[in-house]
Specification:
The protein has 9 helices and 10 strands. The chain is of the alpha/beta class.
Length: 235
């Protein structure tokens, strides 16, 4: 692995009296994609929420570019270069596609404006939908919009929580192509939570598998074999 963009060190997260994340260690290298995998309820989304500051760990450290994030608010972490596309997408349904994208342009100004053509290259369908309300888009179109909006922030670390969930196959292919292009251009590091194994195999450099709040297996994506898939991922 190259030098890490993000490091989780002995991270523990609890809800009330229940410990959900049990001292995990995870590195996301610079300009590479790490897929966090596992069955439902093992702690994947909780891990992401701790990274972006929506949950406070009870122990451990979250480090980005060598600097601890533990004392930073969610907004400060965003300013430090983290963009988060949560499960369910969370676009603004009452705003048009262009107005949704403008929420990033307002934040990043000239930098975001310089990336508009690039995100339309990644997701060309959006360019023909600029006046449509977000709420009338299909689930796949909303997912493209959510990722495009995050990319306009020019993040150092892009976090995606199950971007293929409930999405039609043609748009899954477009999201796959977009992630591969981002990786090829070495624009950012990506931490992906994904249960669709074929998609994970296609886009990832590394994998980490969680079970009961712990990382039980990790490695290069080429090491994700049929036995490991059957043992830890097959429902």
């Amino acid at each position: 692995m190259s030098s890490p963009r993000l490091q989780l060190k002995n991270l523990k997260v609890a809800y009330g009296q229940s410990t959900i994340i049990r001292g995990i260690n995870l590195d996301v290298p610079e300009n590479e994609l790490v897929c966090l995998m596992g069955r439902n309820g093992v702690g994947k989304t909780t891990t992401l929420k701790a990274v972006v500051g929506l949950l406070s760990p009870e122990a451990g450290s979250i480090i980005m570019n060598g600097l601890p994030l533990d004392a930073l608010t969610t907004s400060a972490r965003a300013r430090a270069g983290i963009a988060y596309v949560p499960q369910g997408r969370d676009i603004f349904p009452g705003l048009t596609v262009w107005e949704n994208l403008q929420t990033s342009i307002v934040v990043k100004g000239k930098t975001a404006r310089s990336h508009v053509d690039w995100v339309f290259e990644l997701f060309p369908a959006l360019k023909g939908m600029l006046r449509r309300k977000g709420g009338v888009l299909s689930g796949g179109e909303q997912q493209q919009l959510a990722i495009a909006r995050a990319l306009l922030l020019d993040p150092k670390l892009l976090i995606l929580d199950e971007p293929t969930e409930g999405i039609q196959p043609s748009i899954i292919d477009q999201i796959e192509d977009a992630l591969l292009k981002i990786k090829e251009e070495k624009k950012m590091s990506i931490l992906l939570v994904e249960q669709y194994v074929e998609f994970a195999l296609a886009v990832s450099d590394h994998f980490c598998i969680m079970e009961r709040g712990s990382i039980v297996k990790d490695g290069e994506i080429s090491q994700l074999d049929e036995k490991t898939i059957a043992d830890y991922l097959t429902v």
